[in-house]
Amino acid sequence: MLMRLSHDLGLYFYDIVVARFDLWAAFGVVAQLVFGARFLVQWIASEKAERSVVPVGFWFLSIAGGLMTLVYGFARRDIVIILGQVLSIFIYVRNLMLIAKEAKSRRAQAAIEGMEG
């Protein structure tokens, strides 16, 4: 039984890693690497700050990886990937909009304080 399971697992991994691997699969792997890199960026920023932070780069990598994964989903005609990424990309863009709004508000407040002082 274990021999059969081992053989079947070997065939399964051969199928997904070798037999079905094409340019789109390579693109999908790169998309996942870009998407996953955001966690490395977030971890490094948090370690430097010695607290949990989410840097702007996290959101840009999220958008890049999300768009790449969305393209992959369309190429593979996978509705699960397509729906998941469309919603996620909207959230990532919205976070950048909120960050920009906060930065603009801080600049305006600093300008007001500069004129008063």
Number of strands: 0
- The secondary-structure element order is HHHH
Question: What coarse outline follows from CA principal-axis ratios?
Answer: elongated
Number of helices: 4
Low-pLDDT windows of residues: none
Largest sheet: none
Structural class of the helix and strand makeup?
Answer: mainly alpha
The total number of structural domains is 1
Mean pLDDT: 92
Through-space gap between termini: 81 Å
**Radius of gyration computed on alpha carbons:** 21 Å
Q: How much β-strand is present in the residues?
A: under 5%
Share of helix, binned? over 70%
Keywords: Membrane, Transmembrane, Transmembrane helix
Organism: Microvirga subterranea
Transmembrane segments: 23-41, 53-73, 79-97
Protein name: Lipid-A-disaccharide synthase-like uncharacterized protein
Task: Summarize this entry quickly.
This protein has 117 residues and is mostly helical. It contains four helices and no strands. It has one domain (23-116).
Description:
The protein is mostly helical. Helix content is 89%, strand content 0%. The protein has helices at residues 2-19, 23-49, 56-76, 79-116. Helix 2 runs antiparallel to helix 3. The N and C termini lie far apart (81 Å).
